[in-house]
Amino acid sequence: MTPSERALRADAERNRQRLLDAAQALFRERGLDVGVAEIAQRAGVGRGTLFRNFPTKQDLIAAIVIARMKEATDYGRTLLDAPDAGEALFGFLEEIVGRQQLDRCLFDAVAHTFLANQEIRAAHADIVGGLDDLLSRAKEAGAVRSDVGAMDVLMLVKGVCEAASALATTEPAVVGRQLDLVRAAISVSGTDRPLRGRAPTLADVERAHPPTPATVAEASA
Amino acid sequence: MTPSERALRADAERNRQRLLDAAQALFRERGLDVGVAEIAQRAGVGRGTLFRNFPTKQDLIAAIVIARMKEATDYGRTLLDAPDAGEALFGFLEEIVGRQQLDRCLFDAVAHTFLANQEIRAAHADIVGGLDDLLSRAKEAGAVRSDVGAMDVLMLVKGVCEAASALATTEPAVVGRQLDLVRAAISVSGTDRPLRGRAPTLADVERAHPPTPATVAEASA
DNA sequence: GCACAACCGGACTGCGCGGTCCGGTTACGA
DNA sequence: TCGTAACCGGACCGCGCAGTCCGGTTGTGC
Fold it and tell me: Is the domain of A46 the same as that of A92?
């Protein structure tokens, strides 16, 4: 947070990175339940070192989540220049799903608790923003119906991730199939029925996950 | 399991039901994390009584889940006589989502662990069967594209539930909107693109959640 | 080459929860 | 009425894990 933290010593930085890598790998393999002891061991450092870098297991998780979200956002930006706006959008959706499939448990965490964390909230908003840009272009290009919003799409995609994770291990092809159905859902079809209600907004989601007093305090510390 | 268990004494049966009701209510309010102590207290019984009726917290949860699934299946059957096959199908989907919204955490549990339980597996298969019947009728009536399978639909619906639970507390209308999108996804539109792969089957899902040796033993006990 | 930051890693604490035990009590049901 | 099944509920156990402490060690940066 405070930029005044003097740069880490070389070995400290190295260890920090090792911890992130080890945690990431273990979380992928076995979920968030892996113990800190094992993470430290896999990283080849002592437990003390882990807690020096990340005072709390949650902090460690959050660091990984944020890094992953930023990667996705960056990828989305590169698609803004793509010639076919529709394909760009659907490509982004594929990418998001692919990433969430890899790091399933991490995004579970985001959904349930971590939107209370300010940094994660910001990273999330960035992704939504990027998606919104891609969606707007796709609408202009006539590839997507005009009455769906970014959160509509994001919810569908999140849903696909969740549902797919139940059986993706044995049938990865199913994910693509589900995405095809999402595509059918939001494409212009000529026989579209109107959608109920209004498009949900980012604010709606954030309102449902208020930052806790604890995280606010933490952020200002 | 064994039908030879002699009927419970009146007060025992009463307590059993109280426990189910209390657990159900608490799970709805605060998720599966509520402790057994609190459940017993809310039911107005001692902890010993809880464990006599349900040797394990998991058993308690499973009992509730199975009851809920059976209710949904029964409702589905009543729709088989409805005049409009398309509306019947979509009505069933609304119903499923509504139920899952109420008992969010329970179905999380199912997805993650409980398909290993034979009874739950059977109840799940029944629901899929019912959905399949409704879907077939809707296809014959020309309301739904012919290349989607019951599991395709179920996955979409499950996805909607998951995604919605993230913000349903503040915006219940969003769920209906997502269901409209699901409807758009599987309706005949004239401009349908082919779907990747083949329709997933119940067997695909079950294969991904093999019954554990433990549950097999438990079922035969 | 030296001072000190960073690391090691075992021992320890605290916590919460599921599950067990049991002696004393209640109320069902025949 | 009476035998007994079922209940009560406090005490207790075990477990696993996050997080702390600390004395001894290593290796970085100046």
Answer: no
Residues B119 and B23 in one domain: no
In the prediction, which pLDDT does B172 show?
Answer: 77
Interface list for A 53-112 with B (CB within 8 A): 111
Domain boundary among B12, B40, B55: B55
Mark whether A43 and A90 lie in a shared domain: no
Domain co-membership, B90 together with B124: yes
List the single protein residue with the shortest CA to C1' distance from C21: B48
pLDDT at B5: 54
User: Does residue A208 contact residue B167 with C-beta atoms inside 8 Å?
Assistant: yes
- And the tokens for B2? 């064994």
**Which structure tokens are listed for A35?**
């113990």
Query: Residue B3 sits in which domain range?
Result: 1-55
* Per-residue pLDDT at A211 exceeds 80: no
The alpha carbon torsion through B184, B188, B189, B192 (nearest 10 deg) reads: 100
Residues B101 and B184 both lie in one domain? yes
B51 shares its domain with B160: no
Q: Report residue B218 as tokens.
A: 């438990």
| CATH number of B14's domain | 1.10.10.60
* Interchain contact A148–B (C-beta under 8 A): yes
pLDDT at B144 over 80: yes
pLDDT reading at A208 higher than 60: yes
- Residue B116: DSSP 8-state: G
CATH code at position B145 = 1.10.357.10
Question: By the CB < 8 Å criterion, does A184 face chain B?
Answer: yes
Kindly report the nearest CA distance between residue A61 and chain B, in angstroms.
Answer: 20
Span B4-48, pLDDT tens digits: 456 778 899 999 999 999 999 999 999 899 999 999 999 999 999
Does A8 score more than 70 pLDDT?
Answer: yes
Residue range B180-205: mean pLDDT, rounded = 92
Q: Describe the crossing of helices B104-112 and B85-102 by its angle, rounded to 10 degrees.
A: 90
The residue-averaged pLDDT of A100-116 equals 78
Among B156, B162, B177, select the one facing A181 at the smallest CB separation: B156
Residue of chain B whose Cα is closest to the Cα of A111: B166
- Provide the number of structural domains found in chain B: 2
SS3 A187: strand
- The last residue of a domain, from among B55, B74, B101: B55
Q: How far, rounded to the nearest angstrom, does the alpha carbon of residue A156 sit from its chain's CA centroid?
A: 14
Give percent above pLDDT 70 in chain A: 89
- What would the two tokens of residue B128 be? 């899929």
Considering only the beta carbons, identify the residue of A171, A195, A204 that sits closest to B200: A171
Same domain, B97 and B113: yes
